[in-house]
Amino acid sequence: MTGILAGLRIVEGSAFIAAPLGGMTLAQLGADVIRFDDIKGGLDNDRWPITKDGRSIYWAGLNKGKRSIAVDLRSPRGRELLTALITSPGEGAGIFTTNMPARGWLAYEELSKKRADLIALNIVGARDGSAHVDYTVNAITGFPMVTGPVGHDGPVNAVAPPWDLATAYAGAMAILAAERHRRLTGQGQRIVLPLQDMALAATSALGYIGEAVVNQVDRPRFGNEIFGTFGRDFKTKDGRFVMICIFSDRHVDALASAGGFADSFKKIEAAQGVDLKTDAGRWLARAELCAIIEPWVAARTAADVSEALKKAGALWAPYQSSASSRSTRPTCSTIPCSPSSISPASAAIRSPPRRCSSARSRASRP
Amino acid sequence: MTGILAGLRIVEGSAFIAAPLGGMTLAQLGADVIRFDDIKGGLDNDRWPITKDGRSIYWAGLNKGKRSIAVDLRSPRGRELLTALITSPGEGAGIFTTNMPARGWLAYEELSKKRADLIALNIVGARDGSAHVDYTVNAITGFPMVTGPVGHDGPVNAVAPPWDLATAYAGAMAILAAERHRRLTGQGQRIVLPLQDMALAATSALGYIGEAVVNQVDRPRFGNEIFGTFGRDFKTKDGRFVMICIFSDRHVDALASAGGFADSFKKIEAAQGVDLKTDAGRWLARAELCAIIEPWVAARTAADVSEALKKAGALWAPYQSSASSRSTRPTCSTIPCSPSSISPASAAIRSPPRRCSSARSRASRP
Predict the structure, then answer these.
(1) What is d(CA B119, CA B121) in angstroms, rounded to the nearest whole number?
(2) Which of A252, A344, B48, B286 is the least crowded, having the fewest Cβ atoms under 10 Å away?
(3) CA A291 to CA A298: how far, in whole Å?
(4) What is the DSSP track for A290-331?
(5) CA distance A326 to B2
(6) In chain A, whose CA is at the least distance from the CA of B196?
């Protein structure tokens, strides 16, 4: 393998999103990642989306760059083989990541008998052992009750799974932290990473829990508006949508320039007694800002709005579909993807390189 | 410092979410992280939510466990001091993370003149240099057009920022990958991590781009339903909401047991010609499953539904608010948080420990 993590070997027993995405990220950075599944196919073998002939696009998407083996997990011989693989010698080996129940032959206590300095990452639903996935954890965070249109009755679930994504990368980070520690001290590591803790830690980091505790308020639903500054969606004359935001002085000036809003912005500042160069000023005058921007966007096509915003250097983006995102952005590479590159877990494969770059580490030789 | 990353020292020049959250994560694992802001206050100094006396809960949330200094970034002396801090000697030092423009005195080329093996992580909006934040990147991924109620006209923005979160942890991982490489080879590293690439890579990993390319379909909006298996929200008799999902055989049986649905499930399988023990079977019969579960939940209080689902070991969760999440979950710790622990960037502080645990690395001594 080439890549910055060359020399690391990780054995992965995984399903769902967090564990396989974490392993794939390490593989894409050069680690030798070997995923194992049951000989009859793992939980993800047939997960949707699938191709017309039933092969899992989901499985293919989360296992690029790995090697993959199928083992009879119920046979003593299969377990013995996997134990030997997980605990095999070598400075960069002896690393195991899983979201399977880490008990019995997969328990840290058992595996570390064969390699005392084993590093094992166990992604779990919750600290108390209860089952959780991104969707249930998200329900607990409070985000679904503040997502979606104002006035909507009920929760709005996330489609991009924030807690799976956070846990995937945090898990990969935890492996590297443990490997550094092992290199320095010779000690192995048992890492337990609960999806629910990741979600609640992030909810705290983002100020939601602090706001509830210190200010004694539960933030209401603000629709598509960005809380605490200015940002929301606008509809163009031809029925497309654009996201327009302001996060700094520069974005205020750029937006004013794009739409010829400079005088209108000054009037808002005078009438409302706010400074649009501050987050608070923009947030408090958001209705007034919207009243100026909305008709300007509504009177123009998406192409015209885009050109004006781009030229002025405003902070904005068009809303796209996955398909248009793929076909229109130069940022999505155009490496052809044929159904033949989608393989089930039942054969050893090495997938083609990722299509869009992830962590882009550029070696610099000083 | 204690913690698995003891010995690392990281200088952080940050704003928004991804960069400070990545730094905070490394700090919470034991690295010595020193954040600097301009002497007049950084972009985040007053960001909302704020306390009643104007102090930023946002700033406090993203800077726990760090040291913080304020420097006049426009003065030659301030720049000289920061350059010396960023490039100071020591095996674990010489690590810089930023989302500020890495040009002029902050360019890798300039900084690495003072320390040839510098590691620098630069989080940017997009690879082409255009400005982006989580909200604009999210618009491009396609997720807002498939989030929210079926029939809703227009995008639904994410409130928990998935791409900031992913980039924060992936950035922290990239630092550790580069530090391993430096330890092994003596080489420094310039890492450029675009928010937009993180988002598109994840959209690809989750199968959305593959589905569009291989199947030539753009996934429509499915409301709160989990695509490709069974899962959605249900409303209780007393007006509360619960999320109920099925991801495995065990969850089918548990849900059947909780509600006495075993016979009804068999009838669905016979009538629809599906196997509810498969993802495809559950997805194709989701309307029929909903027709059984919905009236059962609607006839019961949240307390009764919760008790039955919990007892049976079903995969479910109640929808909560941030405040109820904080007050009712034992998983959220009860360390008191007083407004006095919220400090602006203008003084050196060491914040109290995080309130909810993140990556939980338990040292095991084999």
Answers:
(1) 7
(2) B48
(3) 11
(4) HHHHHHHHHTS-HHHHHHHHHHHT-EEEE---HHHHHHH-TT
(5) 45
(6) A331
For chain A, give me the number of helices (H) and strands (E)?
14, 10
Can A218 be counted among the known catalytic residues? no
> Are the CB atoms for A73 and A42 separated by under 8 Å?
no
CA B81 to chain centre: 33
- Among B214, B249, B329, B337, most A C-beta atoms within 10 A, so best to mutate, is B214
Regions in chain A scoring below 70 on pLDDT = 1, 323, 325-366
Distance of alpha carbon A323 from alpha carbon B302, whole angstroms: 40
**High-pLDDT (> 70) share of chain B, %:** 88
User: Is the separation of the CB atoms in A61 and B228 below 8 Å?
Assistant: no
Distance, CA of A195 to CA of A163 (rounded, Å) = 6
C-alpha torsion B348→B350→B356→B360, nearest 10? 120
Confidence of residue B217 (pLDDT cuts 50, 70, 90): confident
Provide the CA A71 distance to its chain's centre, in angstroms: 30
The residues near A307 (Cβ < 8 Å, ≥ 6 apart) are: none
pTM tops 0.80:
yes
Q: Are A353 and B205 in contact (CB under 8 A)?
A: no
Count CB neighbours of A220 within 10 A. Answer: 10
Binned at pLDDT 50, 70 and 90, residue B321 comes out as confident
CB distance A317–B47 less than 8 Å?
no
Specify the pairing of strand B230-235 against strand A230-235.
unpaired
Q: Which residues of A touch B214 (CB under 8 A)?
A: 51, 57, 337-339, 342
How do residues B256-275 score in pLDDT, each as one tens digit? 999 999 999 999 999 999 99
Strand partners, B245: B231, B315
Check: CB of residue A198 under 8 Å from CB of residue A133: no
Average pLDDT value for residue range B314-342:
63
Set of chain B residues whose Cβ sits within 8 Å of the Cβ of A165: 162, 165-166, 202
| Residue pair B265/B256 in contact by the 8 Å Cβ criterion | yes
Spatial distance between the Cα atoms of B85 and A185, rounded to a whole number of angstroms:
28
